[in-house]
Amino acid sequence: SEANFLNSSSGQTYMASAIYRAIRDFKVSYERELNLVSSTQ
Prior knowledge:
Blueprint: H1 2-7, H2 9-39
């Protein structure tokens, strides 16, 4: 079940990694957008 997966060590590592990648990807996209905005002004 989902609860068992999240309580397992590998499940926690997997979720932490997924959250990290999501935040990193968002940050890269956000900074790229900021650079586009600042370069067009």
